[in-house]
């Protein structure tokens, strides 16, 4: 099952997701990117039904871009989180999306922030959060080792601890993870943690 | 579905004051997501609403209520009375009679001449007006017992705070889905005091 987790450090926020695309018992690919970069300073990690995940995050990304075009300034992370929640809530009693979201962003005035948005559109601002079966392990590791204002090294170390726990204790553990970071310099990919590399496609 | 997120809310009437308290846990069934979730919202200085039940519906309902109250303030140029607000909440909930919000509101306010008013309702808007205390949430049965035992009429603000805090903490300690501390608002005619309680953090 999909593992997504995230945490807030000193001046940055990290979102980590597994990169397996799974359909029932079959693993299609191991480099599926589940963390969408919404704009220069926002990341949206999503887990849940594959089609909903891709479609909904793209929808949010395009609407965030539209706001910037229309108004000339980007949305704050809180505004983007509330917009996302609103979209999920409106769809909830019509044709609901089954997507769980972790929205991380950096605002100049308020610094880094992380928002937990459930598939039934429960919104809460948090310091650390996780979805999926992996959450049972990563939340406990984070409860033990997390403290506010962690440095990047400490935070990545904690992320690695969580990944090791998931790999060793989850029966169908995803092999690869991607770590993305958002800080004052923007949202970008930080690192991959791979234990299986896809075989390179030979030229036709 | 009312027990999905876990909640506990209680409101009590005192002498020209009221207190409303809630727990702080946000959970997804057995897993705790956060320990600082806010369930009690201020509508205006003398009116508070606590929303127990499904957290997403509580958030949606709160946004609708703030919208309606702000419109009311623009049109009437004054704040809503608690009794009126309770009727508004009841009407909003009954509109969704066959596809309801899974929330139980607890409304507490100071009405005309700063007379305290509390009420609760079920998820389809059946009002329950009480003179002493009202409860809602997964811990409601424990809360009924604790409040009945500890309540006295005409308590002053300080004593009311102690009573409501003890009632809340002892009840949520018996309920696995609510707890992780408490959030208490004590409102008198002149001031609003907000306090965070530390109880059994589980």
TrEMBL record, chain A:
Q: How does it assemble?
A: Component of the proteasome complex.
Q: Which residues form a coiled coil?
A: none
The similarity annotation says: Belongs to the peptidase T1B family.
Q: Name one GO cellular component term.
A: cytoplasm
| Classification via InterPro entries | Ntn_hydrolases_N, Proteasome_alpha, Proteasome_beta2, Proteasome_sua/b, Proteasome_suB-type
User: Where on the tree of life does the source sit, at the highest rank?
Assistant: Eukaryota
Tell me the keywords, alphabetical order. Answer: Cytoplasm, Nucleus, Proteasome
Which organism was this protein described from?
Actinidia chinensis var. chinensis (Chinese soft-hair kiwi)
Q: Where in the cell is it found?
A: Cytoplasm; Nucleus
Cite a single GO BP annotation: proteasomal protein catabolic process
Query: What's the protein called, per UniProt?
Result: Proteasome subunit beta
Q: What does this protein do?
A: Component of the proteasome, a multicatalytic proteinase complex which is characterized by its ability to cleave peptides with Arg, Phe, Tyr, Leu, and Glu adjacent to the leaving group at neutral or slightly basic pH. The proteasome has an ATP-dependent proteolytic activity.
TrEMBL record, chain B:
Cell location: Cytoplasm; Nucleus
What Pfam families does the entry give? Proteasome (PF00227)
Q: Which InterPro entries does this UniProt record tie to the protein?
A: Ntn_hydrolases_N, Proteasome_beta_3, Proteasome_bsu_CS, Proteasome_sua/b, Proteasome_suB-type
Task: Please give the biological process terms from Gene Ontology that the record holds.
Answer: proteasome-mediated ubiquitin-dependent protein catabolic process
Cytoplasm as a keyword?
A: yes
Q: What is its main location?
A: cytoplasm
State the UniProt keywords alphabetically. Answer: Cytoplasm, Nucleus, Proteasome
Keyword Isomerase (UniProt): no
Instruction: Give an example GO cellular component term for this record.
Output: nucleus
Q: What does this protein do?
A: Non-catalytic component of the proteasome, a multicatalytic proteinase complex which is characterized by its ability to cleave peptides with Arg, Phe, Tyr, Leu, and Glu adjacent to the leaving group at neutral or slightly basic pH. The proteasome has an ATP-dependent proteolytic activity. Component of the proteasome, a multicatalytic proteinase complex which is characterized by its ability to cleave peptides with Arg, Phe, Tyr, Leu, and Glu adjacent to the leaving group at neutral or slightly basic pH. The proteasome has an ATP-dependent proteolytic activity.
Which family does the record claim for this protein?
A: Belongs to the peptidase T1B family.
**Quaternary state and interactors:** Component of the proteasome complex.
Name the record gives this protein:
Proteasome subunit beta
């Amino acid at each position: 099952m999909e593992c997504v987790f995230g945490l807030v450090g000193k001046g940055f926020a990290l979102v980590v997701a597994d990169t397996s695309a799974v359909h029932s018992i079959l693993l299609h690919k191991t480099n599926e990117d589940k963390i969408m970069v919404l704009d220069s300073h926002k990341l949206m990690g999503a887990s849940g039904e594959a089609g909903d995940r891709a479609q909904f995050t793209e929808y949010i990304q395009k609407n965030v871009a539209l706001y910037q075009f229309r108004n000339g300034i980007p949305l704050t992370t809180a505004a983007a989180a509330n917009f996302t929640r609103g979209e999920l809530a409106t769809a909830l009693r019509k044709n609901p999306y089954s997507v769980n979201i972790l929205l991380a962003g950096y605002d100049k005035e308020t610094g880094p922030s992380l928002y937990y948005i459930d598939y039934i559109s429960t919104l809460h601002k948090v310091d650390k959060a996780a979805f999926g079966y992996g959450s049972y392990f990563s939340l406990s590791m984070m409860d033990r080792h997390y403290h506010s204002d962690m440095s990047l090294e400490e935070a990545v170390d904690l992320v690695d601890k969580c990944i090791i726990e998931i790999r060793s204790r989850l029966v169908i553990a995803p092999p690869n993870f991607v770590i993305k970071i958002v800080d004052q310099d923007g949202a970008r990919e930080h690192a991959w943690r791979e234990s299986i590399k896809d075989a390179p496609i030979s030229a036709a | 579905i009312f027990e999905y997120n876990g909640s506990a809310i209680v409101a009590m009437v005192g002498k020209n004051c009221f207190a409303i308290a809630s727990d702080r846990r946000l959970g997804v069934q057995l897993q705790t997501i956060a320990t600082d979730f806010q369930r009690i919202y201020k509508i205006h200085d003398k009116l508070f609403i606590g929303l127990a039940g499904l957290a997403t519906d509580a958030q949606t309902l709160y946004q609708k209520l703030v919208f309606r109250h702000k419109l009311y303030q623009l049109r009437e140029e004054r704040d809503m009375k608690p009794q009126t607000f309770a009727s508004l909440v009841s009407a909003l909930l009954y509109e969704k009679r066959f596809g309801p919000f899974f929330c139980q509101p607890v409304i507490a306010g100071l009405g005309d001449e700063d007379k305290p008013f509390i009420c609760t309702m079920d998820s389809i808007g059946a009002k329950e007006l009480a003179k002493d205390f009202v409860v809602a949430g997964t811990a409601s049965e424990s809360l009924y017992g604790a409040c009945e035992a500890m309540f006295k009429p005409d308590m002053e603000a300080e004593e009311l705070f102690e009573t409501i805090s003890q009632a809340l903490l002892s009840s949520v300690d018996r309920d696995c889905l609510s707890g992780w501390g408490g959030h208490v608002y004590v409102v008198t005619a002149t001031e609003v005091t907000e306090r965070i309680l530390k109880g059994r953090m589980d």
